[in-house]
Amino acid sequence: MPHTRSVYQRIRKYPICTVVLPVLFGFFIGCFPVAPPVTGSLEAPNLSCQGLVVIQDDIDGYHEALSLSWTTDYDDDAPVGSFSLLRKYSNDSVYELFQGSRNIPADTMHFYDRLTGYSFPESGYDSVYYRVVPLDTSGRAGDTSQVVSFVFAPQAVSQTLNLLTTCLSWESWIRGGVLSRCEIWYETDRDGWTSPQMEEFPHTDEPARFIACLPDSLTPLARGKWYYACFIKANVAQSLLIGSINVE
């Protein structure tokens, strides 16, 4: 009976239509759809992006990162085992897991996607897209969240921290209105100092130039490593560049 079993297996994949022959009423055709596949029991989380931030690595200092978080409406007894974050850049065709984004603990509702210089375009803009999916305690995926996107702008260039004037200067070749600010901190004091936000409208053949000087309370600079972070925003696009200088 191998042929019969093969036909039966194929029929099971589709709605089953049977010809019923009642004894007294002739015949009619009845279609009984197969039950749809079971969907994820966990509803989709609400994903959001908080923007660019500075994160610290105990091994190799400070880094640029994109901060993401999500919320859920699950009951306390919901069988949430973990979350996984999916990412896709504008030139990718599919969403993929990436370093550290698999099996995020159920009680952790945020993630810092560590960036590199290659994450930011040299010119123009580039986008990245994220989705988060919950997994139950058996490892089965629930409903995937809505898409959240972020637009990267080129990083600052020609950044210089003048030790005599204790002023940080940097430039941007983004056209149009450019907003920027900086943060400067000592290696053991992340709080540091934040400059006011500045706005420049550069000419077509010149970069936007920014300068921020430390207050007298922080000068002269103590010996050791000083860090700076240059934030840039143009419309919805943003960038962040972290650098450092050793003061002898």
What fold name stands as the CATH topology of the largest domain?
Immunoglobulin-like
C-alpha Rg (nearest Å)? 28 Å
User: What are the secondary-structure elements, in order, as H or E?
Assistant: HEEEEEEEEEEEEEEEEE
N- to C-terminal distance: 87 Å
Structural class comes to mainly beta
The first-level CATH class name of the largest domain? Mainly Beta
Q: What is the total tally of β strands?
A: 17
Mean pLDDT: 86
CATH architecture of the largest domain: Sandwich
How many separate domains? Answer: 2
Beta-strand portion reads over 45%
Task: Name the assembly state.
Answer: single chain
Poorly predicted runs: 1-40
**Main sheet: strands, sense, barrel:** 9 strands, mixed
The geometry reads as globular
In CATH, the homologous superfamily of the largest domain goes by the name Immunoglobulins
Give the fraction of residues assigned to helices.
under 10%
Counting DSSP H or I runs of 4 or more residues, the number of helices is: 1
Chart the SSEs and their pairings.
Layout: H1 2-11, E1 16-20, E2 28-32, E3 46-57, E4 61-71, E5 80-89, E6 104-105, E7 110-114, E8 126-136, E9 148-152, E10 157-162, E11 167-172, E12 178-186, E13 189-194, E14 198-200, E15 208-213, E16 224-234, E17 237-247
Parallel strand pairs: 9-17
Antiparallel strand pairs: 1-2, 3-4, 4-7, 5-6, 5-8, 8-9, 10-11, 11-15, 12-13, 12-14, 12-16, 16-17
